[in-house]
Amino acid sequence: MSVGLEFMAFEKYMRRTDGGGDLFAPASSLEPQAGCQTCEPAKPGGKLMAISASFVTVGPRVEFTPFGEDGLYVGAMGGAAMVQGLDGSAGLGGAVRAGFRLRPVPAVTLGLEGGLQAQTFKGGSVVAPFASLILRPYF
Fold first, then answer.
1. What is the pLDDT of residues 3-31, one digit of tens each?
2. What is the secondary structure of 20-64 as a DSSP string?
3. 49-59 pLDDT tens trace
């Protein structure tokens, strides 16, 4: 069993909605032809509809390794979530993972890991699967 602190982030190019509903839902290709009586004035440069956003989660990570330092493991993390690149959004996030780790020499760990990261915010939620190759040198 091991416990640590994790910073996990992924970037996604996305199209935003033009108001209402889920904050991360795809934008409609239909636009009203009549003016909006309750809308705010357009910002200089027009309406922002597409952007690259970074989804970040920071929190404690727990791993269970039933076969010692090498071999299969499962883990989970949870904590504070935020989105960078969009209007300030903060919420909760977490991830579950499974992987295989090997230490060919005492100062290096190699691994293969996969899992699922999820975040929820006041205006919406996002879920992303992930896979990673790991190289951890120890100094």
1. 989 998 888 776 655 555 555 555 544 45
2. SS-TTSPPPS---SSPPSSSPPPPTT----EEEEEEEEEEEEEEE
3. 677 778 889 99
